[in-house]
Amino acid sequence: MTTVYETDSSIYRPGMTWTRISREILPFPPSALWSLLADFSRWPDWDPDLSAAELHGPAATGTTGFLVPNGFRGRVHSRVAEPFTITSLIQDREIALRQPIPFGAMDLVLRLTAVDGRTEFVQEITLGGPMRAVMVAVIGGDVVKHFDVKCARLVELAAAQADHDA
User: Fold this and answer.
1) CATH 3.40.50.1820 describes domain 3-161
2) Where exactly are the structural domains of the chain?
3) pLDDT digits (tens, 9 = 90+) for 9-40
């Protein structure tokens, strides 16, 4: 069961951010899920909102990359968006990135926490700046809405990976 929390706190003035935190318990340890998160080229395999993802170097804090949303949004994004920057990368625990948006930024954090042989998977998205409402309508809402699909695909891919490794 996915739980979504709403918050409104960041470096922006009160009311200038939109934050949603989604949580789900997945039936694998963090190490089984990490390879799927740390390999950005695999993100479209589990994230229904993406058609492509790439890094401009090794996965590390400070590395830039590009996420291409599906459909028309992706065509526009590919032409006008700046690259994201990895702001945190902690092995088997967390990937965070910052994607510039007009007059602000989208911060995305994916966190894995071990819970009794399973993993609590947390997705936190924050859109900040005066254009946040537009960006929620363009992309942010889907990032939250499709969290259950992401979780199901991660479980499916982790199971296939475990079967392959066995």
Assistant:
1) no
2) 3-161
3) 444 445 577 788 999 999 999 999 999 999 99
Q: Phi-psi region for residue 117, left (φ > 0), alpha (ψ -120 to 50) or beta?
A: left
Q: Name residue 13's amino acid.
A: R
pLDDT score recorded for residue 139:
63
Q: Which residues of the chain have pLDDT under 50?
A: 1, 5-13
Measured in residues, the chain has a length of 166
Question: 3-state secondary structure string, 50-103?
Answer: EEEEEECCCCCCCCEEEEEECHHHHHHHHHHCCCEEEEEEECCCEEEEEEEECC
Beta bridge partners of 95: 89, 110
- What is the C-alpha to C-alpha distance for residues 77 and 52, in angstroms, rounded to an integer? 12
- The span from the CA of 29 to the CA of 33, in Å, is 7
Q: SS3 for 116?
A: coil
Strands of the sheet with 104-115, listed across from one edge: 3-7, 17-26, 118-128, 104-115, 94-101, 84-90, 64-69, 50-55
Nearest by Cα to 45 from 164, 163, 162, 158 = 158
